[in-house]
Design a protein that fits this description.
Blueprint: H1 3-8, H2 22-37, H3 46-49, H4 56-66, H5 76-94, H6 96-99, H7 105-117, H8 128-141, H9 149-164, H10 166-173, H11 195-231
Helix pairs in contact: 8-9, 9-10
InterPro entries: RTRAF
Pfam family, one: RLL
Protein name: RNA transcription, translation and transport factor protein
C-alpha cells in the first residue's frame, strides 16, 4: 500500500514495511520526522524518539496535532499514508530543481493532453488535503473505506447522484399510498413468546412477500419480452427457423 512512496523517500525496507508492528511503526515515525519531515527541532524530538516509553502514544498524538494530521491515532493506515504524502511533498520542495525537468518533453505533452481530456485526472490523489477531504465525506455519508481514494470518490459521486439530487430527494419524499393491513389475519407460523416480536415478524414477512411479488413481476415482464422476440421471426432471421 505504501511501497511507492516509501521507495521515493529511500526507506530501507519499502516492500516489507508493516505499520501494524508496533516497534517497526514507532521506528518508522522517528525516521520520518528525523530524515524527511523535520517539523520539530532536534532537541524537541526526545519524546518521539523514546519509542519504549509508555507515554509514546501521547507524544505521537501531540505530533499528529502539531503537523495538522486530520486522522485519529487509531486510524493508523490513513495516518501513515498522510504522513508519507506530507514527506513526499516536503522532499520535492527541498529538491524542486532536481525533479522539475525529469520528464521528457514528449511525455509531458502527452500527460497534458490526457489531463485536458479527463478533468478528474488533474486531481492529485497523493495530496494529503485531497485524501482528508475524501475521507471526511466518506465518514459523513457512511461510505465504506477503500485503499484507493479515487474509488471512494466515485462511490461518493454515485451516492450523491442517486440519493441527494433534487429529483432523488423529491422522489424519496413522495408518500406511497397503500391499503391498510390487518396483521391478525396473517398467520405467522411460529410463536416467539413475545407479542411485540410476533408483530414485527409478521411485518417483515409481509414486506418480504411484497419484494418477491415485485421480483416476480419483473421476471414475467422479461419472459414476455423474450417470447415476443422469439415468436416473431421477422425480427431477425438468425434467432431461429420457421417450420421444419
Amino acid at each position: 500500500m505504501f511501497r511507492r512512496k516509501l521507495s521515493a523517500l529511500d526507506y530501507h525496507n519499502p516492500a516489507g514495511f508493516n505499520c501494524r508492528d508496533e516497534t517497526e511503526f514507532r521506528n518508522f515515525i522517528v525516521w520520518l520526522e528525523d530524515q524527511k519531515i523535520r517539523h520539530y527541532k532536534i532537541e524537541d524530538r526526545g519524546n518521539l524518539r523514546n519509542i519504549h516509553s509508555d507515554d509514546w502514544p501521547k507524544s505521537f498524538e501531540k505530533y499528529m496535532k502539531d503537523v495538522n494530521c486530520p486522522f485519529k491515532i487509531q486510524e493508523r493506515q490513513e495516518t501513515v499514508d498522510w504522513l508519507l504524502g506530507l514527506a513526499v511533498r516536503l522532499e520535492y520542495g527541498d529538491n524542486a530543481d532536481k525533479y522539475k525537468d525529469s520528464n521528457p518533453d514528449g511525455a509531458r505533452n502527452a500527460d497534458n493532453t490526457a489531463k485536458n481530456a479527463e478533468p478528474l485526472i488533474n486531481l492529485d490523489v497523493n495530496n494529503p488535503d485531497f485524501k482528508a477531504g475524501v475521507m471526511a465525506l466518506a465518514n459523513l455519508l457512511q461510505i465504506q473505506r477503500h485503499d484507493d481514494y479515487l474509488v471512494m470518490l466515485k462511490a461518493i459521486r454515485i451516492l450523491v447522484q442517486e440519493r441527494l439530487t433534487q429529483d432523488a430527494i423529491a422522489k424519496a419524499n413522495q408518500s406511497k399510498e397503500g391499503l391498510p393491513v390487518a396483521l391478525e389475519k396473517h398467520i405467522l407460523g411460529f410463536d416467539t413468546g413475545d407479542a411485540v416480536l410476533n408483530e414485527a415478524a409478521q411485518i417483515l414477512r409481509l414486506l418480504h412477500i411484497e419484494e418477491l411479488r415485485e421480483l416476480q413481476t419483473k421476471i414475467n415482464e422479461a419472459i414476455v419480452a423474450v417470447q415476443a422476440i422469439i415468436a416473431d421471426p421477422k425480427t431477425d432471421h438468425r434467432l431461429g427457423k420457421v417450420g421444419r
